[in-house]
Structures are given as structure tokens and as C-alpha cells.
Amino acid sequence: RMNATRLIVISGLGTSVCEAGLTVGSHFTEHTAVLYAVTMLAAFGTGWFIDLLSSAACVQFMKGVEQSYMARASALMNAGGALAMPLTAVIVSVLVKFVSVRVIIIASGVICGIIFVIVWAAKMPLEVTDEE
Q1: C-beta separation of 44 from 65 below 8 A
Q2: What is the pLDDT of residues 48-71, one digit of tens each?
């Protein structure tokens, strides 16, 4: 068993490492099987860590929001997620004109890692406890 804060930070750091690791396979272009294996492992790890992060965040969201506000808060969260997708697409589309896709992927992994290191170092309270 692990508290939510630790699970969120570990999942975030794992996501950042696996995301940046997606580019490692390019070093094995002469060994196709290794390239596919490394890329598949990094993609699987990214998905697994994002799933853990999402699960922990959803549990904390359910614990922290009063039931009477759940529909509104959930709608706002979904709207924010829907807004993030096209904004990210625009930002990446502009960046791709100046920087390679590989650099963008590594940078996003590094930025993600920095964010979760800051969360860990600042000891941000991410866990909501039951108030009964």
C-alpha cells in the first residue's frame, strides 16, 4: 500500500522516463528487433504509468469534491482536458517547424519529470483523506 502523494509522484516520474525513453529505440536502427522491443517497452510503460496516475487522481478527485458538486466539477475537468488537446496540437505543430520530433518528445518527458520533482520536493499535499 502506498499513499496517494507517493503514487502520483512515482507515476509522474515513471511517465516522464518512459516518454523520453520512446526515443531510445532510434539508437538501434541496425537491430530492428531491439528497436521494436525498446519502443514497445517504453510505450507500454508510458501507458501503465499514466493509468496509475489517472487512477490515483480520480480517487483523490472523488474524495475531495462534495457529491452535490460532482457533476459540475467533473464537467469542468473534462472541458479542461478537451481544451488541452487542440492547444497541445497547435503548440507541437508550431514547435515542429523549429525542432525535431525527437527533441520535442525528450523535452516533454524532461518537463514532466521536472514538474513531478517539484511536486515531490515541495511536499505538496495531494492526498485527500476521508472525513467521517
Answers
A1: no
A2: 999 999 998 888 888 888 889 999
| Spatial separation of the C-alpha atoms in residues 23 and 17, rounded to whole Å | 11
The grid cell for 104 is: 520535442
**pTM assigned to the model:** 0.79
Angle of CA points 118, 121, 123, to nearest 5°: 105
How far is Cα 38 from Cα 23, in angstroms, rounded to an integer?
9
Sole residue written with cell 519529470: 113
Shortest CA distance to 126 belongs to which of 59, 72, 80, 81? 59
Q: How far apart are the first and last CA of the chain?
A: 21
